[in-house]
Amino acid sequence: MAKKPSILIIDDELAIRESLKDWLMEDDYEVDLASSGEDAVALALKKDWEVILLDLKMPGMDGIETLRKLKDKEIDTKAEIILMTAYATIETAVQAMKEGAFDYLVKPFDPDEVEIQIKRIIEHKELVLENVLLRQKLEERSEYDEIIGKSDAMQEIFEMISRVAPTDSTVLITGESGTGKELIAQALHGNSQRCYMPFIAVSCGALPDSLLESELFGYEKGAFTGAEYTKRGRFEMADKGTLFLDEIGDISLKTQVDLLRVLQQKEFRRVGGQDLIKIDVRILSATNRNLKKAIEERRFRDDLYYRLNVISIHVPPLRDRKEDISLLVETFIHRYCLELNKEPVKIVPSAMKLLMAYDWPGNVRELENVIERAIVIGKGTEIVSEDLPFSRKELKADGFPKSLKMMEKIHIERILAETDWNITRAARELHIDRQTLYNKIEKHKIERKG
What we know:
Elements: E1 6-10, H1 14-26, E2 30-34, H2 37-44, E3 51-55, H3 63-71, E4 80-85, H4 90-98, E5 103-106, H5 111-140, H6 152-164, E6 171-174, H7 181-190, E7 199-203, H8 209-217, E8 218-219, E9 231-232, H9 234-237, E10 242-246, H10 253-265, E11 267-268, E12 277-278, E13 282-287, H11 291-296, H12 302-308, E14 311-314, H13 325-339, E15 346-347, H14 349-357, H15 363-377, E16 382-383, H16 404-418, H17 423-430, H18 434-443
Parallel strand pairs: 1-2, 1-3, 3-4, 4-5, 6-13, 6-14, 7-10, 10-13, 15-16
Antiparallel strand pairs: 8-9, 11-12
Helix pairs in contact: 2-3, 13-15, 16-17, 17-18
């Protein structure tokens, strides 16, 4: 279980300090107390916290002055500060934010309000940390270390990234599931002028329409049942950076309209909100669907398609660039030997021949999982054919299966990979019902990869 944030409570009223301490310690927070701004500044010279709850009206050094002291160069606290006040006004809130407060609470408040604010701070800090780590990662590696390939097709992609990344053009990345479309998006962001700002990814196909709207645009407190506090959406989080919309072909027509409006006007409203929020975001999107066909079938708007598809990058399936397999295998072996603390291993020629013959319906993601599995179950310093999840006896020299049973298994695996394991869509494409598909998955012992 992750350690909960350390908290400093600054209030001149003993009852408030003690009650807040009791509430927070019940939830396993580490809590310190200060009865004045002067005491808090003295403590802050020796220790830092992740959250500070600071009373506005105190004798001697008041909340605003204490806030300034905690944020000045001498102390420079890394804590997020929440002001507590019984005299909240718009002017107070504005001044507090200008001085560096994260937010403020109006007295009297209940424990749930405090917990909600702390959760918001945790979410904010995790996002900041995520982007700090991403920046470090980008600085430590060369331009495209995560994207591996020596084939002509991959060299063309590298060339396209170098030309497109410095611009603010929208890019549509197409390709089957598992080909590495998000890695392309990260490379575009990492080599752009926005590289030190957030890169926010949203899997559009993983969320129902109502949740996707809240995820993208955020919501105001009370906008719907369960909306206990105001939440920023992914568009706001990505301001000045890049928003990556994965599985864009799965969004509903209603969400398509909302998204088109944001792309055109560079502004939006939170769910349940009235204020327009302006943003400066670069949009990258990806899909494993044929959007032109979806447009013909009136399932995708052509005006949104042309907005998203200013630049197009297609990532070919692994079966069409098999010259990249040996380089990928070498990279994955090195990676997982390090991660799993294993002695260095090599792959024997017969096992490599099997990998080259296989059709890879799950693409690079499937190959990575196969290598990880082989390193985990392998007993020696070599990866041999028996360490691979398919048998050489089941494949002919040209990579096609010998048996009808194996042919069916590979075909079902491919359809499941292409639909990202959406059982309803996969069953529809296979022209069978869902229960039959479940039975065949169990019969062939098919497992989801990645």
